[in-house]
Please model this.
Amino acid sequence: GLDYAEKLARMFGAKLEERVVHAVDDISLAINPGEVVGLVGESGCGKSTLGRIMAGILPQSAGTLHWEGKDISALPRQEAKAVRLTSQMIFQDPMSSLNPRKTILDIVGEAPVAHGMVPKRQAPDMVAALMERVGLDPSYLKRYPHQFSGGQRQRIGIARALAVKPRFIICDESVSALDVSIQAQILNLFMELKQELGLTYLFISHDLGVVKHISDRVAIMYLGRIVESAPADAFFAAPNHPYTVALLSEVPTIKQRRRQFNPVKGEIPSPLHPPSGCHFHPRCPHAFDRCRMERPLLREIAPGHISACHLNETPVLAIARPAEITT
Ligand code: SF4
Ligand code: MG
Model:
């Protein structure tokens, strides 16, 4: 229940109320150091917004954001900026996040020089070393983004993020635009960097296959709310929330992955005007009266496994597992 959310918030938690964009609503999500948390949901569910708030790119209008025990939202601006450098974001489309008029040297070296982390004359050596680390030829230092392939550009984006020595990396659909074989290479690079540098990841994706491959913990978001979070093993072995169960019964094959991700029956309601009570009730096969009226709270249903569904309070009704649906 709530105690669990509080325990989590000690390490890294975000309890947010986004009244401006209405994209994320009273979120508690905690990530332990060295952990990879996969954040999954359909497009428009608010997962990118949550990632941007965590990276300090978007302000939260209420609530607190904790990082390594400090409430970042309460720090003076300059100090908050320095702390936030330790969180870096890697986006889906490196072409639009890399300045086409700048060389790789400038793109990767800019932030560490600007923040006084490395003297300007040492930037070429530092950038060359980073390029080598992410699998790029360091002699390409003076080249421009358009001279690289999609996968190489994503490696440049990773080098740029690493340049400010982050401890927390937020990947927002970072491999979604890449071919499957390149995806695997980039995912392996993420895992190597995690081992070497002790990184922590929030891995935002609509792709449960990718998330399964990479995550220690999985969190599911639906219309601005976390509806379930569990250690990856428990998540895939014993999913609890009806939305999760529906997602898992429809995990697309690799061939289908490029389809629009909308595997659950029914239209996704507008996040601006979400349904009353449980946001999932119009699409939920188990919905009953209470679901339309009352918001279900996140409850701990097993150690480290939280879920927000009224069925967890009415044990008479069992939630169908994917196996039961198919047999
Ligand atoms: Fe379905 Fe009700 Fe549970 Fe929401 S609270 S997921 S509508 S059973
Ligand atoms: Mg997004």
In short: The longest strand covers residues 225-231. Residues 12 and 67 are 5 Å apart (CA to CA). The mean pLDDT is 80. The two ends are 33 Å apart (CA to CA).
